[in-house]
Amino acid sequence: MRIAAFGEIMMRLTPPEYLMLEQTKELRLDFTGTGVNILSNLAHFGCQTSLLTNLPNNRLGEAAKASVRQLGIQDRWIGFSGDHIGSYFAEMGFGPRPTQVTYQNRRNSSFGVSGASNYDFDAFLAETDLVHICGISLSLTKETREAAFVLAEKAHALGKKVCFDFNFRPSLNEVHGVAFMKEQYEKMLPYCDLVFGSQRDLTDLLDMPLSETVDCANQFEELVHRFMTKYQIERFAGTIRQGEGDKHYLTGFLFDSENYVQAAPREIIHLDRIGAGDGYAAGILLGYSESWSLVESVEFATANGVLAHTIQGDVPLTTRKQVRHIMEQPTVDLIR
Amino acid sequence: MRIAAFGEIMMRLTPPEYLMLEQTKELRLDFTGTGVNILSNLAHFGCQTSLLTNLPNNRLGEAAKASVRQLGIQDRWIGFSGDHIGSYFAEMGFGPRPTQVTYQNRRNSSFGVSGASNYDFDAFLAETDLVHICGISLSLTKETREAAFVLAEKAHALGKKVCFDFNFRPSLNEVHGVAFMKEQYEKMLPYCDLVFGSQRDLTDLLDMPLSETVDCANQFEELVHRFMTKYQIERFAGTIRQGEGDKHYLTGFLFDSENYVQAAPREIIHLDRIGAGDGYAAGILLGYSESWSLVESVEFATANGVLAHTIQGDVPLTTRKQVRHIMEQPTVDLIR
Amino acid sequence: MRIAAFGEIMMRLTPPEYLMLEQTKELRLDFTGTGVNILSNLAHFGCQTSLLTNLPNNRLGEAAKASVRQLGIQDRWIGFSGDHIGSYFAEMGFGPRPTQVTYQNRRNSSFGVSGASNYDFDAFLAETDLVHICGISLSLTKETREAAFVLAEKAHALGKKVCFDFNFRPSLNEVHGVAFMKEQYEKMLPYCDLVFGSQRDLTDLLDMPLSETVDCANQFEELVHRFMTKYQIERFAGTIRQGEGDKHYLTGFLFDSENYVQAAPREIIHLDRIGAGDGYAAGILLGYSESWSLVESVEFATANGVLAHTIQGDVPLTTRKQVRHIMEQPTVDLIR
Amino acid sequence: MRIAAFGEIMMRLTPPEYLMLEQTKELRLDFTGTGVNILSNLAHFGCQTSLLTNLPNNRLGEAAKASVRQLGIQDRWIGFSGDHIGSYFAEMGFGPRPTQVTYQNRRNSSFGVSGASNYDFDAFLAETDLVHICGISLSLTKETREAAFVLAEKAHALGKKVCFDFNFRPSLNEVHGVAFMKEQYEKMLPYCDLVFGSQRDLTDLLDMPLSETVDCANQFEELVHRFMTKYQIERFAGTIRQGEGDKHYLTGFLFDSENYVQAAPREIIHLDRIGAGDGYAAGILLGYSESWSLVESVEFATANGVLAHTIQGDVPLTTRKQVRHIMEQPTVDLIR
Amino acid sequence: MRIAAFGEIMMRLTPPEYLMLEQTKELRLDFTGTGVNILSNLAHFGCQTSLLTNLPNNRLGEAAKASVRQLGIQDRWIGFSGDHIGSYFAEMGFGPRPTQVTYQNRRNSSFGVSGASNYDFDAFLAETDLVHICGISLSLTKETREAAFVLAEKAHALGKKVCFDFNFRPSLNEVHGVAFMKEQYEKMLPYCDLVFGSQRDLTDLLDMPLSETVDCANQFEELVHRFMTKYQIERFAGTIRQGEGDKHYLTGFLFDSENYVQAAPREIIHLDRIGAGDGYAAGILLGYSESWSLVESVEFATANGVLAHTIQGDVPLTTRKQVRHIMEQPTVDLIR
Amino acid sequence: MRIAAFGEIMMRLTPPEYLMLEQTKELRLDFTGTGVNILSNLAHFGCQTSLLTNLPNNRLGEAAKASVRQLGIQDRWIGFSGDHIGSYFAEMGFGPRPTQVTYQNRRNSSFGVSGASNYDFDAFLAETDLVHICGISLSLTKETREAAFVLAEKAHALGKKVCFDFNFRPSLNEVHGVAFMKEQYEKMLPYCDLVFGSQRDLTDLLDMPLSETVDCANQFEELVHRFMTKYQIERFAGTIRQGEGDKHYLTGFLFDSENYVQAAPREIIHLDRIGAGDGYAAGILLGYSESWSLVESVEFATANGVLAHTIQGDVPLTTRKQVRHIMEQPTVDLIR
């Protein structure tokens, strides 16, 4: 299955050794983004992947493309337009000090200013079996919103699988407000086959209430299946984080039209607090593309999400061998 | 309230990535010192701060001044004399391996050779409401001792608040012995309004016994209030560290003439084992300068002390927003 | 003389050791800008300096302010608005390979979106004797253009000295074209006392022809004096670069209303190809503020411009002692 | 024209800042090799390129592939065999101190132990128009020699262009001696269309004498044309270095069956003394693949070779725009 | 007691800050090996130590010797032969992500190709009281096997103490198989006085069964004493790792001909997962050379093993003072 | 010939990439000093060398010893006393910007506070054939002066060769003045066999006039021979630097009792402006210890001095092979 994604390439600038911005003049530059992260991980799993996006036609755009290629992603659908790459600075947290992300201008990025007319969706879809679209596109600009809709519609019409990630960030939507965003998501969902999201996305953004007639333990399951039926969704997946004392655990869930499975929780020990969600999504997509059972998929994806937290940067670079290792030999912490 | 400090600027040289000195030729250079640390933190809280000290009139002195300015501290009372900056090397510990500090010559530093005649105390005090004096000055050299006394006396006479930190280190006082040092501290205390110290400073250094007629639980409180009454101290504050299994907790205490409050203990997770005391002191001084309640002050200061341990280097660079965050949303470990 | 500047703070991101962007993930972060550069240099010469600008109210804005303070510039007139800092990447050239600058979005920066209403010009000018305005403000956005005009007009009305730098970059003005820009410059110049520029600024941008009746050797001088008379300019200054074989030389010129002096050319050996112009300007402003002779000023400023090329980054950090050293003991290449 | 290469991927380990191995524990890791260098450069010129080689099937092999992809080279013909990558340490010279290269085991590398049976030449050639073979293959091991012959023979039979680079290093051939190597080269040459070499390769290795009946100035030309006729070579190219005082100049030459052109010499200013030859070769191949005139080709290739010396590492990452810039605007040393 | 070792010097190349190979071009270079590690630690304890090995006669060999000298080991018995140093890349694990070691060619290293004739054992032994031989020598090559046997035999004949470390790695012995390796170990053991190993070495490699007539709790002790009697071994020592929840503990054991002691388990907190075994061995050898009691030795060695995990790299650089500190003042985590 | 030196070990702290102290927090730490430099170079030439000095008994002292061992120098005569190592910061110059050295406290260093009673000269001299004493010892403190005299006297009495280096720095002698220093040098010289110095040392410090009856060209030679006769000096050597345009040349001279030779001047291209003198001295001492001719010695030493300038840091790490290379194949700038 040829897997592709439509989404932004961002620059991430990170001070070394948990330093804060004031403390250093040294920064590490990575190119990242939900699409980059998921595709890179799938490429490390052996899948053929391709990214559809736009970059500025300058030295930075070329460097971004080189980085994407290194990650194992085909760069032939990366076009040039605009003159800016959105960026963020990540001051890495430690212990009780949270990781602090500071965004620089995203809306004027090459991706942000590119609408449907800036892409050749037909040619792109001809080479794609499944396309991942990140919900950020619906929040970013009028152009990205429009491009996402056209792409999803075309893909759906062609019988390609559409995978959509809610990725709803209130901070990116202060102008339009939730009501406006609800409309956008409702417009997108009918084209989608696989969806990543959370209970809150359904209740707070889509305004779908928990059923009062279902007992508590089953409310979430009922809600999700109601949602999936409404929009004809094939898979719905996401992660839950739980704290217990000063430990944190990650578990993933996965629905098909009839079943609901949840993985055994795994302790999170993070080197980097950003990016586990994309690792989880890559695991689910791998299982889907290879028709694994729900249980197999969710266990693999959760293990992968936990591994993603042990890797510097947003991009999960795990291989199947590494994921299998921590599933099968979790106590072997030195491999020679 | 304009807050100032009198104290030494030192160089701290730290190998990267927990390496020991033998293992690397790379060092990180920071300028630090009790005064620098407290003032920098207060400046990050929005206070107007100024440091009174002396540096060598050379490239290093200029670099030290630039660093102090960057931290948000006014450098106009930093003079030039002598030709040396005291320094220390910090080999960062990990797990059971302790952090190892190795001092290089401090007594011949520009600060160490500067006596009262090297400073214009009157002009300095005219622009100051509260001055912090570190107890190290009493141990370092005859010149720093004398300067500290003259400054405290003048400040007191002018009705300025004097804040004094015991900071008693037996290793710096091997020549003179405790009896001599007791005299110096007794000479200083009558000028002081706020004091940072510990039970041991009162019992071992000042030789004030715990009352045998008070029950154990109240002995510390009785002792401190006896001390405060004796020297007419307005506030007495300090921190206590406790271990429980392999976890460590920090809690702060704070006295006014009638009351005694203690903060809820907070777990310490340290990136750097040096500097939390100065973070605590900065928090107490902020509360004092803004007339917070004792409880508010001690909780904020303890949270700040814990945060200071999560920051590389001695200098606590926390903002009010960061401290409030871990007090109010301790489980949110990623802020976008 | 209290010297201030109105201008943008930018981020400069530079790969280490002459690497190109594709070759590294390590970048060095500096905060720079014409105003920052000139003021920092003047502060290193002992002048009191202050920068008027706006930054985003976030971690990056705070880090930028800390950096500016470190350079010796007062940060009290730096306000907060917008949410972006313009940035550029500098791939350092070597030998025949040119230094390559790639700009990221400047127009949407906090400075770019701030108009006259975002500043308190009156209070600012009350503490200022001379204000430097960079011509980039006329090119950047409608807001910066307007702010520059209001500031210049007010300063002029209050009898403050206005120093203006053409800094005309065709690449920033592709939308409006030269005719539009000519109008803006003509609107600004009547408020100005000191101007930095080149012959080409006068002939190509302002459309002032060289006189055909003057012999070649004197055409430039006649042109400048004609320009100075027209706009009542007190000083006009700039630099000329010349190549001779594979050597490059810098020389500065300086006009007052009656005289024209040129410095002896100095060989340029560059560690960094960006920033010498600001070093030259700082030298001229120092001489002006201390009423040096034209010759003294131009020689000092040229030496300083040459030194600026030997320093990493745009910001000239030279002291008077360093400039005097290369003027007086050019062969002593090791100072102990 | 789809261009491919057959050759080794090596690790290059370089101390930073001109340090020698004893002076540092920090090394920079690059993946390099004649094929990598030429293809990467061609990819930066916009060509479609692919590398045929073998790597160990482990973390290092994967890292090497990622690096090759980043450089713009397709990795689909990179197979796995063996368990070792040849490496070399480059202590960068400065002034009179030469760059010192120290090789680690090459003969047991994955490439060194791979013979013809380890590659699928037919499938590879089906996707290739021109294949570059480095003469090192003839020296390295029996297996690489055999693989090179089979590949060249098959390519020639299929009418694909074969480009061969003498790259004769006596130090790699101490065991077999020159007579043995002469045989190998003579066996290879009949399959070749383009050849890179020097006068010494023809006279000393192939034992072809300079003609005594031709006058000195034309001896080289006569020799090369005699060589080209003998082996039916379409193009012969190489570079000459000349010193003049303490300056060094590079010039390239290029022959077709009838003509001989030489580029104007360009001064070499090296950041890195390794890799200019591959930059020259990439320029010649670009010209060939796009049917440029001999003069155009040789001028572009020489400029590119000179640029290659200004880039850290062996891999020339120049773009057409950069080469054109130094050909057309050699004095503009700062591009914004 | 003059302690020496016979063994390989390897290069260890480690990415910084827990990065994986794909993520960085920066590597840290260390020279390491079982003999290097143990001797360096003993030298830091104040012992006179010397290493017998071979290196290539080139820049790398010289750098390796310099590094060994820095560690406190005499380099006079380090000879030159061959042209390669074996190396490995260590991708440092974090949390559940294991440390991943990737070896490059070891069998063709200078050490691997050196047999008995390449060393002057007699002269070496004349200056040695105890020689440590690592079991890797038996696995590596025919030459190293032979050299180890000759050395052990000669040392034994001269009445020198021979210390042997099983260090059996199945991955290095895939060609020969266990039966062959058993023979080699059986040939070596009669020459040995001190042996480091595990229960599994005795049962699986030497094929010595646990006694069924002894109750479980004493089976290990009986087995080891049976082994020691058979081969006339004076001391047998090793370590056991235990997990409890997510904590890991290290404990050491030590046998003489009659007694068996085990240290109190100590929690492992690792900065580096490689090298604790060598720290343990160094502690045991120190105790042996100074005739400490078994209990003293095993407690010191276990503490040292735990400390070794808190140090970057394989080489334990601990001093007696540091080991004593964590044994006596485990809660003091900052020493000034 | 066993060569030893008596002198200080200093710390050198250097910002990377030509940055100034204000511009960076990263420093490189090297241990250096005239004795360290000369002995290290001789060790790299294959000589047996040993350093006599004192260091503090702490982590820094241990790190300094480790560094000295790495350089190839025996550390058995390095004792412990005092608690401080003198240090200096070197801001590396570029082009016209001079290298700027800033010293930190030297007089209170472990070396500075150690007098004759802190060393065991007799045991040391029993293992030494030639001892180098740096003139800095005469300037530093009363203790170092005394120690130098006692050592020189004892060495001379035992028939050991004494090599003395004027190394007169007015900046270190502002307190005592030239007259006092003259006395000290006159007291030392009778014990000396080899002396490094300059014409100015003889004329300005020792107050020996140039002869007016000798013609100009021979004045220097006559002066040196007069000086050598007076103090019974066997060899006198030094270097001369000359500028010609923007090029700099180094040449060495060498006298025995009857002859005077001067090397051919060699161009200086410096990576580091500190340390060439020690490289020259090492070359002369090598020639002396191996009874080379004056011409051989002076040519080798001058080439070595020039090479020393191409190496980062003060310590010349050149081998005989490297020196011979630039003497014999100066145009080969890449060695594989």
TrEMBL record, chains A, B, C, D, E, F:
The record's listing under Pfam families reads:
PfkB
Q: Which controlled-vocabulary keywords does the entry list?
A: Kinase, Transferase
Q: Gene3D superfamilies in the record, alphabetically? A: 3.40.1190.20
Carbohydrate kinase PfkB domain location is 3-310
Q: Which SUPFAM superfamilies does the entry mention?
A: Ribokinase-like (SSF53613)
Molecular function (Gene Ontology), one example: kinase activity
Residue ranges annotated as transmembrane are: none
Keyword ATP-binding applies: no
The family annotation for this protein states: Belongs to the carbohydrate kinase PfkB family.
Record PANTHER family: 2-DEHYDRO-3-DEOXYGLUCONOKINASE_2-DEHYDRO-3-DEOXYGALACTONOKINASE (PTHR43320:SF2), SUGAR KINASE (PTHR43320)
Q: What is this protein called?
A: Carbohydrate kinase
Give the organism, scientific name.
Enterococcus rotai
What high-level taxonomic lineage is stated for the organism? Bacteria, Bacillati, Bacillota, Bacilli, Lactobacillales
